[in-house]
Specification:
271 residues, alpha/beta, 7 helices, globular
Length: 271
């Protein structure tokens, strides 16, 4: 069996090539629309687990001062290149969300494409939510999506599918779901064609693991950190649009939570 690389290392080079940017761009636009309907325009934003910066650049284009945060140096390198191509001014921070420390308070924190599901250890969710809450200004929003338990059980359970099939790239996903632990491993296997004198197909494998969270538990965690859940909405991946009220019967949900003013913790401005 091929040795598996850490998540989002080798995968970073093909992530945008197989169309993964589209989801981030769509959910970022949907979030901005939801906020605008409530008369809220973010000035300072942190896009957490930003990956290659798809959502980050949409938020930057809306005029926000923004920092993209991710623990993968390889994904951030792709994000920096994408930002340079668009000319958008973005700050990038290589950091694990469990150790989140932003350069300045923000009035919007986002985390998209089931990034929160990657918090698999007990206590991780509480740690991250507390750090996000402490980084928000009074009345600031935390917006993030989650794959539901139903998505993992029905969509990812014992599943194999082709992720890419091109002349220069082939990739496949294999996933399963462990109901007792709530964990869902995903194995990525990709082959990239290398041209030249030593032309060959180069293989890499990565293992990703996500965790199913009960929505009621997530809401309780938000409340304990001083965040009020304003709304939970279903999200339709294929269309990239918000649906009706999000429940355990949805496949993906988006949480819109806001920092309770009386519970705001002070985060110092940078010197």
């Amino acid at each position: 069996m091929a040795q598996r690389a850490p998540a989002y290392t080798r995968y970073a080079a093909v992530y945008d090539l197989i169309g993964q940017r589209v989801f981030g761009e769509r959910i970022a636009r949907a979030t901005l629309t939801w906020l605008a309907e409530r008369g809220f325009t973010p000035r300072r934003v942190a896009d957490l687990a930003c990956g290659t910066g798809a959502a980050t650049l949409v938020l930057a284009a809306a005029g926000a001062e923004i920092v993209g945060v991710d623990r993968s140096a390889e994904m951030l390198a792709q994000a920096e290149r994408a930002a340079a191509e668009t000319g958008r001014a973005v700050s990038w921070l290589e950091q694990d969300l469990r150790d989140l420390s932003l350069p300045w308070p923000v009035d919007l924190a986002t985390s998209f494409f089931d990034s929160i599901n990657y918090l698999v250890d007990d206590g991780d969710l509480r740690t991250v939510v507390n750090r996000v809450s402490a980084s928000l200004t009074e009345g600031g929003y935390f917006v993030f999506d989650l794959n539901t338990r139903r998505r993992f059980a029905e969509g990812w359970g014992n599943t194999s599918l082709i992720a890419a099939d091109r002349d220069d790239l082939f990739g496949a996903y294999r996933s399963w779901f462990e109901p007792t632990t709530g964990l869902s491993p995903l194995i990525l296997t990709f082959f990239l064609r290398r041209d030249g004198e030593d032309a060959c197909w180069e293989r890499f494998d990565e293992e990703h693991v996500e965790r199913a969270y009960d929505l009621a538990d997530v809401e309780q965690t938000l409340t304990a950190a001083g965040l009020e859940t304003i709304e939970i909405r279903a999200f339709h991946d294929a269309e990239g649009t918000l649906g009706g009220r999000g429940t355990e019967e949805s496949e993906r949900v988006v949480f819109f939570a806001r920092r309770v003013p009386d519970a705001v913790q002070t985060v110092p401005e940078p010197e």
